[in-house]
Amino acid sequence: MNKEQFDKMRDGRGFIAALDQSGGSTPKALKLYGIDESAYSNDDEMFAVIHEMRTRIITSPAFNGDRVLGAILFENTMDREIEGKPSGEYLWNVKNVVPIIKIDKGLADEADGVQVMKPMPGLDDLLKRAAGKGFFGTKERSFIAQGNEKGVRAIAAQQFEVGKQVADAGLVPILEPEVSIKAPDKAEAEAMLKKELLAGLEQWPSDKYLMFKLTLPEEDNFYSDLVDHPNVVRVVALSGGYSREEANARLSRNKGVVASFSRALTEGLSAQQSDDEFNKTLDASIQSIFDASNS
Question: Per the structure, how many domains does the chain have?
Fold first, then answer.
């Protein structure tokens, strides 16, 4: 593990940029960016277009380690280059932004009110490659649609199991058991989840570290026990469908939690903007999320 990256992630001021849309979420992200599905005819072309969008964000003068702690990339992006350098190397050596990789393969069908992660064949190989490319950690997402104790327990168990595999490979896992902002019993689901996460931390190896990426809770500072845990490097929040304004407002009321926004970060950016317009819009977005993360 890179100690400089670890210290930045634990103690630095800023937030994590989630630039990890994969096959399922890429068309929507591109549409919001002003690129219609008619602009590409297959997955290879689609991933080339989204890489151009990510490259434009990452190479922008507004995007650097002064306000951005880390960036989560999709595997396809990890294997590409930015300005002639491998993506992870460019992030860290040029921008001083810690590189993180999304490792889940998407969600299984809903059962017991939740969607666990699909199987991840070849995960050990992916972790080895990510470590070799200088990546600090991973992110893996599952989804809680409603408060069902059996389902939430299954989500937490799987997250910790995968997290241990990641930690054993020398990387820091970001466990992301997202609670839907549309859950009819969101507060109850969050209470169930916190109980399971605290139970999982009791079994977590004392010499290994992890992070959590969680939906902004109904009760402010609800996850402070996780924030204060000695093995938790950081607790970060996803925007989860809230507008940037709403997400920032909720985030600013949760002490010690910083953003890991995706759609809320890129809100207002467009392929049609001039570089000057694009950079100004991104700069304002980054500043607002930075302020909310460090309030």
Answer: 1
DSSP state of 116: P
pTM for this model (two decimals): 0.95
Tens digit of each residue's pLDDT, the chain (295 residues): 799 999 999 999 999 999 987 777 788 889 989 999 999 999 999 999 999 999 999 999 999 999 999 999 999 899 999 999 999 999 999 999 999 999 999 999 999 999 999 999 999 999 999 999 999 999 999 999 999 999 999 999 999 999 999 999 999 999 999 999 999 999 999 999 999 999 999 999 999 999 999 999 999 999 999 999 999 999 999 999 898 899 999 999 999 999 999 888 999 999 999 999 999 999 999 999 999 999 7
CA angle 75, 76, 78 (to 5 degrees): 60
CATH code for the domain in which residue 20 is found: 3.20.20.70
CA dist list (Å): 288 to 56, 73, 293: 20, 22, 9
What residues are labeled active site?
A: 176, 213
Locate all alpha helices (DSSP H) within 97-185, ordered by sequence.
Answer: 123-132, 149-168
Q: Partners of 114 in the beta sheet?
A: 111, 144
Domain containing 40 equals: 3-293
Structure tokens at 2: 């890179």
Q: For residues 27 and 46, is the Cβ–Cβ distance under 8 A?
A: yes
154-174: burial string, b at 16+ Cβ within 10 Å, e else:
bbbebbbebbbbbbebebbbb
